[in-house]
């Protein structure tokens, strides 16, 4: 990923006992995000400190592309399906300033 990408991070605490169902629902709807022409990629990570906390990170070519996606029908539908699992969430956006690949990247 080149410097200057627009990154979105959602920290989401899900309702206890719903991890497997949440992960399956997230997986089943990823095309709503990764299918958008401005999307570079998306990741789902689970906290090692709190098993009910997840981080959803997505990278975009630019903020304009992300904002166009944000209100799109596919995203709104996917977001509503995930909302059923959510106990709380925080949302942040940022601009990638620099990216340096590590030694393991080439393997």
From TrEMBL:
Key words, A-Z: Monooxygenase, Oxidoreductase
Gene3D superfamilies according to UniProt: 3.30.70.100
Top-level division of the source organism's lineage: Bacteria
Top EC class for this record: oxidoreductase
Residue span(s) of domain ABM: 6-94
Keyword Transferase on entry: no
GO molecular function: monooxygenase activity
Name of the protein in its database record: Antibiotic biosynthesis monooxygenase family protein
Organism for this UniProt entry: Streptomyces fildesensis
Top-level taxonomy: Bacteria, Bacillati, Actinomycetota, Actinomycetes, Kitasatosporales
């Amino acid at each position: 990923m080149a410097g200057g990408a627009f990154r979105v991070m959602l920290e989401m605490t899900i309702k206890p006992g719903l991890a497997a169902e949440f992960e399956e629902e997230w997986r089943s709807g990823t095309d709503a995000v990764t299918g958008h022409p401005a999307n570079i990629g998306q990741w789902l990570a689970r906290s090692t400190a709190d098993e009910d906390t997840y981080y959803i990170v997505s990278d975009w070519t630019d903020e304009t592309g992300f904002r166009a996606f944000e209100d799109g029908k596919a995203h709104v539908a996917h977001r509503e399906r995930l909302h059923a699992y959510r106990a709380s969430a925080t949302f942040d956006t940022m601009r990638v300033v620099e990216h340096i690949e590590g030694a393991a990247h080439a393997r």
